[in-house]
């Protein structure tokens, strides 16, 4: 867990080097109205890495998929769709963060399913 926390901090530093940290900080402010700042950004990335290094990898994969969607202009389609359906004016930073969170949540749910599957297997065998 501690090693994952350190890996999360290192990845946060690398994202800072490529100026992706601002996108994440602004996205958090736009999505949930909390200004986490730089310290909160590093803490959140460290916690995410501490929970699961797979989770932080999936967060980065979600950001990468969002980046690929910008080449075929799907990002504007998603942002406008959210604006029409949910009456929420989403910024491009919130769009990237949303994809990162979806990627991280999907991997987190996969880890939970993996840990819970032996419980259901044993339970099915006894009934």
Q: What can you tell me about this protein's structure?
A:
With 127 residues, the chain is mainly α. It has one domain. Helices cover 87% and strands 0% of the residues. The protein has six helices and no strands. The chain has helices spanning 2-17, 21-32, 37-51, 53-71, 74-86, 92-126. Helix 4 (53-71) packs across helix 6 (92-126). The protein is globular. It starts with a helix and ends with a helix. The mean pLDDT is 84.
Which structural traits does this protein have?
single chain; 127 residues; mainly alpha
| Total DSSP helices | 6
Which stretches of 5+ consecutive residues score pLDDT under 50?
Answer: none
Q: Which class of secondary structure composition applies to the elements? A: mainly alpha
Domain tally: 1
In angstroms, what separates the terminal alpha carbons?
A: 36 Å
Q: Strand share of the residues?
A: under 5%
Helix content: over 70%
Major sheet attributes? none
Mean pLDDT: 84
Which overall shape is indicated by the principal axes computed on the Cα atoms?
Answer: globular
H/E element sequence: HHHHHH
- Determine Rg (CA atoms, Å): 17 Å
Number of strand elements: 0
């Amino acid at each position: 867990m501690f090693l994952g926390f350190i890996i999360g901090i290192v990845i946060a530093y690398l994202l800072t080097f490529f100026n992706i940290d601002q996108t994440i900080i602004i996205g958090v402010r736009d999505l949930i109205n909390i200004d986490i700042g730089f310290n909160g950004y590093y803490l959140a990335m460290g916690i995410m890495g501490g929970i699961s290094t797979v989770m932080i990898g999936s967060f980065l994969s979600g950001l990468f998929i969002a980046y690929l969607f910008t080449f075929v202009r799907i990002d504007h389609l998603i942002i406008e769709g959210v604006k029409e359906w949910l009456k929420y004016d989403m910024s491009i930073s919130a769009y990237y963060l949303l994809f990162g969170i979806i990627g991280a949540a999907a991997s987190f749910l996969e880890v939970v399913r993996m840990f819970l599957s032996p419980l259901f297997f044993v339970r099915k065998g006894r009934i």
